[in-house]
From TrEMBL:
Region annotated Disordered, chain positions: 171-231
Name of the protein this chain belongs to: Uncharacterized protein
Extent of Low complexity compositional bias: 173-191
Residues that span the membrane, as ranges: 134-156
Length: 264
């Protein structure tokens, strides 16, 4: 994984109240460092990653400092180079193979060197865990799936409501006693049946007389009525089957229950 730089002024880095000040120069990473000369001054940072590096500086006026990572302490000597010498952007502490839990790094200016007590904090280099990236992608994918699932459920429900509002009539022959609630007028036979050219109408004899008259070819003309419209109902069984199918896709133990509304 690629290392991530946290500069000396990163908001996650906390400095103790003391003699900390910011020094600038092109020799530093990000053109600046946090510096102190007072013993006991410290910085602290919490992070998550598989590795961390502390970048500071060595110099003739630097002392030694104490590094504490999750309770394990290490003394680092920052002195080098003789009078007026120094080396910027030095990796002075490194830890690898860290667990996926949160870690805390503390650095304390602990002791004077031969010519001074300077401590400089330039940057931290943190290596993220590979699982962090994949877990983030997995989380986004799961959110996208549930958003898509919600859109599908809304679309299905709207479709069922539209179907419920579509009233379908079936023309049925009337008996001798048509339903009392039917107020429709019987339709003419010619409006209900298609007749090809040259084909006698099935409800009239050859002489053109109505089938209600006498004769061997006479037939009784049936009357038709449309059944009274009833309140449309949503197909609850269909909604339940769709919900169960979608629940199995997300590996739930039981299908969710959806409340359906009867269209008025």
């Amino acid at each position: 994984m690629q290392e991530v730089f946290w500069e000396d002024n990163n908001a996650s880095i906390k400095y103790s109240s003391g003699k900390w000040s910011r020094a600038y120069g092109t020799i530093y990473h990000g053109s600046a460092v946090m510096r102190t000369r007072r013993l006991g001054d410290s910085m602290s940072v919490s992070f998550q990653g598989s590795a961390i590096k502390f970048m500071g500086a060595q110099g003739w006026d630097h002392g030694s400092f104490l590094v504490n990572l999750d309770g394990e302490e290490t003394i680092v000597d920052g002195y080098c180079c003789g009078p007026n010498g120094g080396v910027p952007q030095v990796i002075q502490f490194e830890a690898t193979g860290l667990s996926t839990t949160s870690h805390t790094l503390n650095i304390t200016n602990s002791a004077a060197g031969p010519s001074g007590t300077v401590l400089e904090v330039d940057a931290l280099l943190i290596t993220p865990h590979p699982e962090t990236k994949y877990a983030f992608k997995s989380h986004i994918s799961l959110v996208a799936f549930f958003v898509l699932l919600a859109i599908i459920l809304v679309a299905v429900r709207r479709r069922l409501i539209r179907l419920a509002h579509t009233t379908s009539y079936q023309m049925l022959p009337m008996t001798s006693n048509p339903p009392a609630s039917s107020a429709s007028t019987p339709a003419a036979p010619s409006a209900l049946h298609r007749r090809d050219k040259g084909t006698p109408h099935p409800y009239f004899n050859e002489s053109g007389a109505s089938g209600s008259g006498s004769g061997t070819g006479s037939q009784t003309v049936p009357q038709y009525y449309a059944p009274p419209a009833t309140d449309p109902q949503l197909d609850d069984a269909l909604v339940e089957r769709i919900a169960q199918r979608l629940a199995r896709l997300v590996h739930e133990d039981a299908p969710p229950t959806y409340e359906t509304t009867t269209a008025a």
